[in-house]
Amino acid sequence: MRLKNVPGSREAIAESEFVIHDFKETKGSFKKLFGNENPLHIEIGMGKGKFIYRMAELHPEINYIGIEKYSSVLLRAVQKMEAEPLPNLKFIRMDAEEIEEVFDEGEVDKIYLNFSDPWPKDRHAKRRLPSKEFLARYDKILRKDGFLEFKTDNRGLFDFAVEQLPEAGWKAEKITYDLHHDEEMVQGNVMTEYEEKFSSMGNPICKYIIYR
Ligand code: SAM
Fold first, then answer.
1. What's the pLDDT score for residue 4?
2. From the CA of 32, how far away is ligand 1's center (Å)?
3. pLDDT attached to residue 124
4. Which domains, and CATH codes, for the chain?
């Protein structure tokens, strides 16, 4: 998602109470930050935040952090929170390559990746969020018995993601190549912005749930 630069978005993010700014200092203290002992779920590459906002609305007993690289995109999520704030949702503007500097070992209970950028050139494979390089980073921050869920309509990216698993030491708990017609896996499915867009065009949605 490459929105044009939105003037003032960087400043608005820098001032927002819904964004964690000193995120390298909150490492290991997210329970303190939220003021409770609830589990911590994160979405990496949340875009405008439709999915994570809805998840936080539906599950007040879980704390959520949405991570997004670009201010101009994150701004939409911040504006939604300004209009209708939720106590269990915060955002971080950062490149997920630095994720281990933000969360302590095992501090995260669940990770969501939704419609991650495909980076189609082979030489950019390491930048794909479900690559083995990123799985190694998630391995550090995710609770030992935690799960990671990934959805996309991009079959090439999904096949790549599945191929990465054994080498990275992860296993698939469940896989579907047509989520919306999978009676079991579609239960409780919350659609992302991209999922709405691409499924309305008739694209089947692939999803895996993985663990190690
Ligand atoms: N998850 C949303 C959805 O399903 O509607 C947005 C999907 S959009 C295609 C991918 C988003 O991931 C973009 O907003 C992009 O800026 C963000 N992103 C890609 N690589 C990232 C990274 N390394 N760190 C943080 N965000 C990233």
1. 65
2. 27
3. 97
4. 3-211 (3.40.50.150)
